[in-house]
Structure formats: C-alpha cells, structure tokens
Amino acid sequence: MFASKMQLQSILTRQRVNLLLLIFSLLWISACGGATASPTAVATEAPTEAPTIPAKDVEVEPPTVAPAADSAGEQEAELIHVNFGVNAEFEPFVFKNEQGAIVGFDIALLDALSQVGNFEFTYTDLPFEELLPKVESGELDAAISAITVTPERAQRVNFTDIYFRSGQAPVSYFNPGQGLAVRTDEATIMGKDSLVAGVKVGVKTDTTGAAFVADETAAEAVPFPESNDALNALSEGMVDAVVVDIPVIVRFIEKNPNAGIRISGGPLTDEEYAIAVNPARTDILERLNSALAKIRESGLYDQLFEKWFGSP
Questions:
Q1: Whether residues 88 and 155 fall in one domain
Q2: pTM of this prediction?
Q3: Which DSSP string corresponds to 179-208?
Q4: What would the pLDDT profile of 220-263 be if each residue is shown by its tens digit?
Q5: Residues 112 and 250 occupy one common structural domain
Q6: 38-62: per-residue pLDDT in tens?
Q7: What is the CATH number of the domain that holds 217?
Q8: Residue 198 neighbours by CB under 8 Å, 6+ apart
C-alpha cells in the first residue's frame, strides 16, 4: 500500500511538471505569434528609406549641369549690339553701289566678324572727320573705313589688330597708303619732291593724306569733304594734284576713264588699317580681335580678300 502511494505521488508530480511545461510552451508560442505581427511596422519603416533615392539623384545632377556650363563658356559671350560709324567714300573698302546700298571690303569684313564674334551691328554713314571724334566721345562704339593707325589717333581711341596693311594686296595699287594723282598731261609732278610751294594739292579733310601734305611738303593743301570731290577738282583743273588713299584713286580711274587722271610714282606712305573702338568698350575690342583671329585661321579672311582685291 505504501509503495503504491509513493508511485502515485511521483506520477502526479510528473504530471504537474508536464502541465507546467505545457503552459509555458503555450505562453512562449503565443509570444512568438505576437512577434509575427511586426512586419506591419517594418513596412512602415521602408518608406523612410525612400528619400535616399532622390538624394542619389541630386548627387548625379552636378556633373550633368557642369558640362553645359563649360560648353557655354567655350562660346562667345552673349549677343551684343555695336554701333559703327562709316564713311562710304573709300571704294573698295566702304562705298555705295549703284542701288545706293553701302558695300565694300570693310562691310563684308564686319559681316564675317559679327557672325564669328556673336554681335549684331548697325552703321551710320558720316563724314570721315566725324568718325574718330564720335568714337572717342562714345557716341559711336566703333568705326571702320580704311582708317589708318597713327600714334596721334591711338591716343584718342583704341585700335583693333591690323586687318589690312601695305604690301598685302597682290597689286600695288590696292595697297593702303597715300598716292599721288595728277592729270594725264602732267609731266612735272612726279612724287613727293615735286610738291613744292605754289603747287595746289587736293586732300580729304582730316586724313593722313592731308597730314602728309601739311607736314611733309611745301605745297598748298586744298581740303575737300570727300576724296571724289578732290579728284573731280583735279580732273577739272582746279588743283594740280591730289593725295588720297591709293585704292580710292584706282577705283575713281576705273569708274571715270575719261577723267584724264593717273597715278604718279609709288606710294607716298606705308599704312595699316584697323577698326577704331571707343576706349571704354574693351569688351568690343576683345571680341573684334578674337573674331578677326578666327576668320584668319579659318581662311574666311582670305576668301573676302580674294573677292575684293584678288584681281585688278
């Protein structure tokens, strides 16, 4: 009897232990089951990582913007307007054609420079003596009309790089420089040494030709507003000779074969032409010089030169 009670108590003890173990197991499983509900929290956390995607996009943007800025930097600056003054009495550099339009090598050169230098331009036809004063004062941005570079003029305005110089043209009478025009029946006026006292020499006002006669000779300078006025006066016998740019004399003779005028001797001066620019507009000066260098390098300058000066 005693033995069976002990066995019974042992059995009951084991059952209680097993029951307790079962209860703890169920509680543990229940706790684990609660953890399985947490994916809803994980799902809410995922969007918080989403901003890292736009952040990566932002990091990619600077390289895409930088090349655009660099490419813009390689181009000319923004488009600007330049107001030029011209004197349409320097054929073949600047003159009026039969339709009254202003044409010539200088105008063709401006067209090419404006395309390469990214500027637009207008021009006003003025007497030559007004060009440099208006450029100096700023009324004009620049001027072009076979303008000879001199130290005196360079004190008043800025000059671009030279675009035409003596010895450049294939025929001597297209070279810049002052020439001496006389009537075809004139046999005594042969050159500078012939321009003595008593000789009346027609000149264009405020030009290097006028300065040459005044400073380098004893002849009487007779000023005219335009070169053709002086040459017509020579043809009519009002003056004994005329000193103006050689290309101007040549074109006048070509257009007026019955004027009875010829060139006497060689060039009186060696000259270089450049564009005059207002001293305050260094931006225009730099842009013109840059464009001039580019059209020379590309061969466009040579094409323009050949068109206007390639043949007599």
A1: yes
A2: 0.66
A3: EEEEETT--S--SGGG--TT-EEEEETTSH
A4: 999 999 999 999 999 999 999 999 988 889 889 988 999 999 99
A5: no
A6: 333 333 333 333 332 233 332 323 3
A7: 3.40.190.10
A8: 219, 220
